[in-house]
Amino acid sequence: MELKRLLICGTAALALAGAAQAEGVKVGMITTLSGGGAGLGVDTRDGFLLALKNAGDAGKQVELVIEDDQQKPDVAVQIADKMIQSEQVDVLTGIVWSNLAMAVVPAAVAQDKFYLSTNAAPSQLAGAGCNPKYFSVSYQNDNLHEAAGAHATDAGIGKVFIMAPNYPAGQDSLAGFKRFYKGEVVSEVYTQVGQTDYAGEIAQIRASDADAVFFFLPGGMGIAFMKQYAESGVGKPVIGPAFSFSQDILPAVGDAALGVKNTAQWSKDLDNEANKAFVETFQAEYGRLPSLYAAQAYDTANLLLSAIAKADVGDADAFRAALAEADFPSVRGKFRFGPNQHPIQDYYVREVVKEGDVLTNKIIGPAMTDHGDAYAEQCSM
Amino acid sequence: MLLAEQALNGLQYGMMLFLMAAGLTLVFGVMGLINLAHGSLYMTGAFACAAVAAATGSFWLGLVASLAAAAAAGALVEMAVIRRLYARDHLDQVLATFALILVFSEGTRWLFGSFPLYLKLPASLSGAVVLPGGLHYPLFRLVIIGFGAAVAVGLWWLITRTRLGIRIRAGEADREMIGALGVDIARLYTIVFALGAALAGFAGALVGTIQSVQVGMGEPVLILAFVVVVIGGIGSIKGALVGALLVGMTDTLGKALLPGLLSRVLDASSANTIGASLASVLIYVLMAVVLILRPQGLFGARG
User: Fold this and answer.
1) Whole-prediction pTM value?
2) Is the reported ipTM for this assembly greater than 0.95?
3) Are strands A343-355 and A336-337 parallel, antiparallel or unpaired?
């Protein structure tokens, strides 16, 4: 008798728990919150949280677990295992770095979890390795660099020195730049991930006959390089993707970045309602300007909310279809997914300017319109 | 011209390693202590410099603060923890000083947060200067080379020309005997430890200025500093200087030249990966060769 009652209670409790779970969606955010890459992860987290807050009651359906990956692939894998197995999240998101994404994403989607990328989008996951459960809301890694290559060609830069860290996103970066750059690449240099001293590379730049330097160095790497480059007196103009001159980098680099051109799919001065609301509420909430990473995470959260409103995450096919519609007000204005579930969107050339005392970016023109990526056709889903 | 600039880079890197290794080799030589927490003192100096420079607006005050804070932290740690370890074996020392790394890192994170700090150079030290031969080189890196050389001369003077130096050398040779002769060993050890800590903190502040100041910045440098100590010979300041310059040059020139050489036969990405790993292996090859030829290190007294 006693046993029977226990069983009934237990079953009822389980049923209740099941019902409670069906209402909301549990999201695991793995991102970098310490070390030289912390600025990127903090903006990712804050952008995501802001979107949930701005959504009011709809945002409360998302239960968010956040953990710091310390920019280490092994730590990211451990966190992902824990989130999938013991926390039983439905959706994973937040990874900034492509080497970490390569360590986590294939295993996560194989265990039937959705992964929505707020930033890292390595070519390996866009082509033959694409997956129905993997969406990149940011871009495909090559994109911003392709736009920079196109811009360098338009600007008539004849010879360029190109440099990126040696990891998946760095390789994608230089491949992307070269795909759309028509001039001569005089030297192609890979640095170490997390490198803090660039004296050797700066010496090579000085000795080269390049007219300009293209570099992709996100986070603390970009700060260290730009500071040392400004001290070195080399003086060749630099261009890069938005990552190298993002809002998280500019205050530390200072006036050395003024006037530098960089390419992005978003800028805080993009003229649309969603973006105005985003920039305004972000500043009110956190007291600083949002970066590209914050904008991407904000879009990711809004995409997720749009899918939650249409389908139950337990019904994977319906949920995937809802995500693929991309029916949300993007801060980029127009936004849609291509066949490999990576964005087809516009890219712009931005310039670093000073507004009052604050260094920031301003759009000066288009770089590419309705641009997809080079790997979509290798993807068969 | 490129080679000259890379050689200067190697020299600057070597001088920075020397500042780290000098303290390490003194502590190791005089007290027989393996101090893994030396990198934490380097970090302490960097954070002190960043905090004071931000608060007062003066980089020079920041540098002074880095010396003072690291020396104070060193003295405190010596009296509270390290003192209990001299009689223990090396494994206990490694364990305890590793624990100190964790305490320092967490403490710093608690005080300053996880974000890296960035220092601004004063106008008088920023920019590049033209060297004879027309080479442009950042002034501050030359200043680091100058500081390193000054510290080397200062330490040489301290060790060979002062009473404290005599005691340090005596302590290295026979610690029981100088105790019996009435030298206050405990105080001597605290002073030597604080001196080593101050040099590490100074190195941290200088490097933090050109790179960034963040938690965990000391550990990668510490490993190389140990290599320098082993190459130079334990307890020898001269050995630390020669070892540091050798390691700095080998590492910088290896990294500068190897990828270029390899890229003639490989693509850029793999030439860089292989070149960079070969360059870091070069240091250990150098160490192995020195150990085979002179097991006590280049200038080591003991075998």
Assistant:
1) 0.88
2) no
3) antiparallel
